[in-house]
Amino acid sequence: MEVAEQRLTAATFEELAMPLFDQLYNFANWLAQDRTEAEDLVQETYAKALKGFSSFQTGTNFRAWMYRILRNTFLTSRTGLKASAMVALDSDDAPELPAGPDTPEALLLEHSQHQLLQTAIEALPVHFREVLLLCEVEEMSYQEIAETLSIPMGTVMSRLSRARKALRDSLGPKQVRT
Amino acid sequence: MADDWTAKLETYLDGELSASEMRDLDAHVRSCPSCAADVLSQLQLKRAVHSAGKRYIPSSEFRERIRKSVATKPRRSPIRMWLGATAAVALLLVAGLVSWSGRQQQMQRQQVFSELADLHVATLASANPVDVISTDRHTVKPWFQGKIPFTFNLPELQNSEFTLLGGRVTYLGQTPGAELIYQIRKHQISVFIFPDRAVGRELGSSSKSQKELSFNIESWDQDGLRYFVIGDANSNDLRSLADLLKKAS
Predict the structure, then answer these.
(1) Cα angle B215, B225, B201; round to 5
(2) Is A177 within a domain?
(3) CA distance B19 to chain A (A)
């Protein structure tokens, strides 16, 4: 979503930002894990983005810019600070996750698998959770994720890989291949 | 040997390898059952996370609140837009109804006129065109007593070119009415009189001059009666007969 060189007006902001609303709301909920907090987060993100829109560089990635604002807003919030502190403690170890059921029947039930997966994603430390969601749900490229999270691409890849491993581990022995 | 590839599988599935690496890995996955199984399992997880991750949907109120907070130009609210759209649809409907009912009315009028033209022709073609043969209006008018549910006045024709030939009872849409035959020069003219409530509704209350199958028709509404003057005489003759009838009532 590259924004072509054009006169950036407030009307342009609305046109660019509103299509991202659903995705940002979803992402905010995954980060904050609380509806009210997520709404505050989205509201603050839009307010900040509108205010700072003149500083947005045309020709760069608007979506990454919006996600970056959302994420930074989250990280400086109370919940965000707590969440990132948790990551700092076990930063380089694979996160401990609640063990999933090991019956293959349970995994075959798509609905329960869906819920299991959601629970497992929720349980991921925020730095793993966000990278996984940006890649799988938002379908961002590594480059875009790196831009959004302001981290090198190598870190994107290693975090993504660890997040997936943690997820597979939590989903039970059946899913573990490596 | 598969280990070299295993590390790259994720990047491969994320579509982030270079084109040549993608090709190489493609080829490898086809020949390595272990990597193929891995790809399948990882792909399943990717898909599952993709759908499980789309979990939270904002309320429309919240969306509207944010939209308003970033909107610069006042946006028409959905309610007002809805109202506007409804009004437009309603207007179209009304216009449609009006034109439909207009057309409907015109069609009904057309039908009445063509029926009257038929009656007129049938009368002229009949061996006994009139049931009461009289040039005297004072004979003709009482003749209708008890035969039709209304009464009417006929004009004095002494100073005109018209001659009354007689009259008969006729029907239009199951309603009995009077048919009077007048003559001017060689032309015979039928004057039909019906109760207005039976035939007038489709015709409107205004006076009309019209042509039906090249017959001229004059029609008007008077004292609850609907008059039709129809014949092959020219429209001026029909109009002067109509004027005489109007004055007589």
Answers:
(1) 80
(2) no
(3) 15
Residue A5 lies in a domain: no
Residues B154-195 pLDDT 10s: 888 877 888 888 888 888 877 888 999 998 888 889 999 988
* A145 located within any domain: yes
Distance CA B227, CA B221 (A): 6
Contact check, Cβ <8 Å, A142/B16: yes
B36-62, pLDDT tens digit by residue? 888 888 888 898 899 899 999 999 999
**CATH hierarchy code of domain B105-248:** 3.30.200.100
Does residue A45 form part of some domain? yes
List the single best residue of A27, A167, A177 to mutate versus B (max B Cβ within 10 A): A177
Give the list of residues 6+ apart from residue A152 with CB closer than 8 angstroms, or none: A146
Look up the CATH number of the domain holding residue A51: 1.20.140.160
CA nearest to A64, candidates A1, A113, A5 = A1
- Residues on chain A touching B13 (C-beta within 8 angstroms): none
pTM greater than 0.90 (yes/no): no
Nearest to A46 among B37, B52, B70 (CB): B70
